[in-house]
Design goal:
This protein is α+β, with helices and mostly antiparallel strands and about 210 residues long. It has 4 helices and 9 strands; from the N terminus they run ααβααββββββββ. The protein has a domain of about 130 residues: Ferric Hydroxamate Uptake Protein, Chain A, domain 1, CATH 2.170.130. The longest helix is centred in the first third of the chain and has 20 residues.
Length: about 210
């Protein structure tokens, strides 16, 4: 027999023997692994509630974004009106007041006061000396206020860097924004002090 033919037959025999017997083993092992991973599809499934996200196709400016601000006006202002602006706002959320006498007090917004809270009148700085000296009163008379705008936190930075705590913007009645109608009214302020056991009277306002 030719030596080359013998070599070819040996190679063919080895190929058929080892290929047919050894090759199916990885397939059997893989099928066992896959069958071990199979299980009921409905076990451990958690159904989540639907989440709805709404938006608007129109852009919004930074001043229109939700901010921590509120307005005190109308009947609410009439009930809370007091001798000072701080006393008028004392029941508003996040608002407290300093005390240096019956008149010399100032609003505290979220624990910040003095130069961290800015006092404005019709959007303009009031040159408030009470921020530097606690014995000075805020230069705003609550008797002539039409509404009070309260800005808390970073939203008040629109009025300057020293308004990091917040800002109190008072809109007074100096400039009418509507024609005069047939209704009129007046307010007279007075109060009692137990320090000197006496009465005091304040300004007379009309509308």
């Amino acid at each position: 027999m030719n030596f080359k033919v013998l070599i070819l037959k040996c190679i063919r025999w080895a190929h058929e023997t080892f290929y047919m017997k050894a090759f199916p083993m990885p397939l059997v092992f893989a099928s066992v692994c896959l069958s071990a991973q199979e299980g009921p599809l409905n076990q451990g499934i958690t159904e989540l509630d639907a989440l709805t996200i709404e938006s608007t196709p129109l852009s919004s400016s930074s001043s229109e974004v939700t901010q921590a601000w509120s307005v005190v006006s109308g009947e609410e202002l009439e009930k809370a009106r007091s001798a000072t602006i701080a006393e008028t706002l004392k029941n508003q959320p996040g608002i407290r007041q300093t005390f240096f006498g019956p008149i010399a007090n100032r609003p505290i917004i979220r624990g910040l006061d003095r130069h961290r809270v800015r006092m404005l009148s019709n959007g303009v700085e009031t040159f408030d000396f009470s921020a530097s000296s606690e014995d000075h009163a805020v230069s705003i008379d609550p008797m002539f206020i039409e509404r009070i705008e309260l800005l808390r936190g970073s939203s008040a930075l629109l009025y300057g860097s020293n308004a990091i705590g917040g800002a109190v913007n008072v809109i007074d009645r100096s400039i009418p924004n509507h024609p005069f109608d047939d209704s009129a009214g007046a307010v007279f302020r007075s109060g009692y002090t137990d320090v000197n056991d006496g009465w005091n009277a304040g300004a007379f306002a009309y509308a």
